[in-house]
């Protein structure tokens, strides 16, 4: 059916747009930029900041372009004197209840309000400073997220993110009038509510009201301490996004420059979380096979489907929202925590370093990893396994602070020993990647043959669809696994906690046909993580994902079990997957949590 | 045009006829005819916004939907207004009669009275009326049931989309429009939201006929309406008057002989100084020479003993609390106006700052998300423009 | 404790679990203790399948869904213009005097909480106030004392 077209005039130009197009979208088609604050591509339209107002001939008021559909014959002005005056006033109002200590703000130069205030030359003095009379607080109770009410402009992007994308609903709008603000349940501190620390709110916050808790100074301090051995691991999704912090377009991979920069910053060892991602596949793959065997052969009551456990936001979500289903989670620690536990045991031992002198740092695309590192379960080395977790953004800041010219850096390499990686580990960074890596290894373990997909690309599990399903039939399996002969293994992938909740709700009513489900808390997986450069949107996430899959294709080794570091650690230290040592260091357990 | 006079009318509370008799006749007529009568009558919403009632019903009537709703807006919160309480208390059945008519025309099978929390004492009485009303509906063979819905105490819920949000279990925050409620209202279904008084007039137009109704008032502002009179008046109370009177006539009848200003339309309305009484008519915009001011019925009279600064401060204090807080112009603007007049009064800001605030009030009128937000600055601009010296000294 | 929980369950059962019934449920649960506590809100949320923060956000929007502990009777004195012009401040002083508390406080015997509210729709008979749901109009300081005395006699 042909779409009905609407004819309207924007800034003197007659254009035709499909029915339902908003004035904002119509202007965008014409390359006319209308400023916005509450609008975000990933979220439903709110229409509450009123920065995007435009003038429509014959209308008494100035409608919000983001919330007004194009109508036949409309004559729209996006930059009339009336519009400019109104926008300027609206911005001045926002500034009047906003802490304008921009010089000390973490989001300075990456703040949408700052940018617009500069663009419209907002005079800070025009209206009274309302902050003086408010009892605004800074909540730094959480290990992962800081909430600063003095910088909040009530655009409610965070609230919509928390509800629409994540179904967490930790943040909501409370009270009204002058007292209206964004808060948790009864304004409880962030550390004590259902917040999963996913940080998606941070990624969409236009200002510095929501930021990650930062450890930059502590890390510099450790690097400067000659008695410390500071080791850093970097997650797969960091290398395809870090460039955005340092002047590159989204989708440019900077793996080599990142390794070089980390050395330049002064880290004693520059290692790769990819190594423990491969290790995760070994452990998790065998755990799945073990669960299937216990169910099919031993007739045990085994929890299936098994869910991946790499995403700490997802872990905290299920602990709060579906605490009766924790036995469905793989007991595998996330790659970060496997790495941490091994760094202060295996690595320290091999490198003859006193584990107590090791400072274990990780660079993650994630804010929830900060919380994960602080969980009491994560002390299997005898001390906190990972000491400091920084986001991609923090690393960007550190590199800028260091004075190094990132773009001019020659590509470097990760150190040997826990620095090797495969393409399977790299794709952990994109939604579906863990599943693909697991299938590449598990299929081969079970059948002795490569997965039957062209170029190892398991395309059905790739993409950006919220929930994806796939199945793979096991035929001619090796004798050890004859119990799986003819079985069609059903898998699903969900990213974004709203999608995860849908999978869980089906499980609760007994309608989950899957054996194995990959869940990532963040839309797009780790490439869209809460620690990644701001802004985020579908195109940016797509570009990062493409860079990830490209790296995989260029790798010589593309299956986790082929990682030489992984093979060595089983030989020298762990014995076999799910062995005694593995259980001690690489597996964990979960905790029921309250719903508020 | 001939000078309008202040004329008392007796329709809303009249005992001439029974609601049941009016319905008995009306519910046998084709619904298109009823809509036509209402459109012809020129009846506009009596809550303050003034949307043509017949047109609203027509739009809902023409919607194809398996479910439709009729909602009586009894969330009367505008300062100085108390007519809806009086109507519900004295002639509640007529309100229900108007709802039955709306149900018949639009095809809605379910209706609600959204009663403000402050009027909870009316619940027993209304429940009795509903019982009686539902028996009538059976007799008329009209499949229509009305429930009471009790608000929680929020001025902004008088705005129809906030009211709907509130009924859906949410914060009472106005929606983006379009879509309008007649298209997507309560639970996403076509919904007619009418003020208490409007519903009674719709019913009474069936009784007196659209011609008679139209013969009152003036072009664009036909008929009569209820006025809630308070402030410096020896005759505070409810009066049904023909539209179109001037404030001079009004003050002559209701003032205490010393009126210096009348606030028309409550805290979100306009303040008219004595020198403008003569040229200011009460009715919807247009139609008469001079100014014509709409009102939901609130008429507050201030005599010369009153400080207009205190009056304005009271209004701004009201809005600073009652703004839903959702959109920037209303949430922050109201705070700025309040703190701003305080600062000028204390001498912390020069009197020129009032001009900055007047410009801000223009922006608020132009950019706020909802009709209420667009009108919160009316009292500020009209009081500051007319009583500037009282703001400063 | 038990009683309260089952009352919440009963309220949700009576009005229905759908979100549109949230306000009626909140009104009903408020009657148990004359305010909505943290646990009231979180239990309502759990019963209705809503998030606690959201139910809190909704309740906090409305004046009469009190989220702080209140006395057995809540006095709401209208502070809006018409009542203000007729001397609502004096009424507030008279009440503070009669109850020996300040605005916003609850009497030590838990009998009264004294609050203000915006226009309650009795502008022609100001000053006016509500005690719980009941309006009192044309108030004078003497009248206020009598009204309070009556409540104490009850």
Overview of this structure, please?
The complex is a heterotrimer of chains A (596), B (393) and C (154). Chain A contains 19 helices and 17 strands. Chain A is of the alpha/beta class and 596 residues long. A four-stranded mixed beta sheet of chain A has the order 2-1-4-3, with helices on one face. In chain A, strands 11-10-13-14 form a four-stranded parallel beta sheet, with helices on both faces. Chain A has a four-stranded mixed beta sheet with strand order 12-17-16-15, covered by helices on one side. In chain A, helix 9 crosses helix 11 and helix 9 packs across helix 15. Chain A is globular. Chain B is α/β, with parallel strands linked by helices and 393 residues long. Helix content of chain B is 44%, strand content 16%. A five-stranded mixed beta sheet of chain B has the order 8-7-13-9-10. The model of chain B has no long low-confidence stretch (mean pLDDT 95). In chain C, strands 2-1-3-4 form a four-stranded mixed beta sheet, covered by helices on one side. In chain C, 49% of the residues lie in helices and 12% in strands. Chains B and C meet through strand 7, strand 13 and helix 10 of B and helix 2, helix 4 and helix 5 of C.
Point out poorly predicted stretches of chain C. none
Straight-line N-to-C gap of chain A:
47 Å
Strand-pairing-aware structural class of chain C: alpha+beta
Note the overall shape of chain A: globular
Characterize the main sheet of chain A.
Answer: 4 strands, mixed
Stretches of chain A where pLDDT is under 50 for at least 5 consecutive residues are: none
Helix coverage percent of residues of chain C? 40-55%
Mean pLDDT of chain A: 96
Q: What is the percentage of strand-forming residues of chain C?
A: 5-15%
* Secondary structure category of chain A: alpha/beta
> Which protein chains are joined by the largest interface, and how many residues does each one contribute?
B-C, 52 and 37 residues
Question: What would you report as the Rg of chain A, rounded to the nearest angstrom?
Answer: 25 Å
Give a count of the beta strands of chain A, DSSP E runs of length 2 or more.
Answer: 17
* Helicity level of chain A: 25-40%
Individual helix count of chain C: 7
Quaternary organization: heterotrimer
Note the run of SSEs of chain C as H and E: HHHHEHHEEEH
User: Mean of the pLDDT scores of chain C?
Assistant: 96
Fraction of residues in β-strands of chain A: 5-15%
Strand order of the largest sheet of chain A: 2-1-4-3
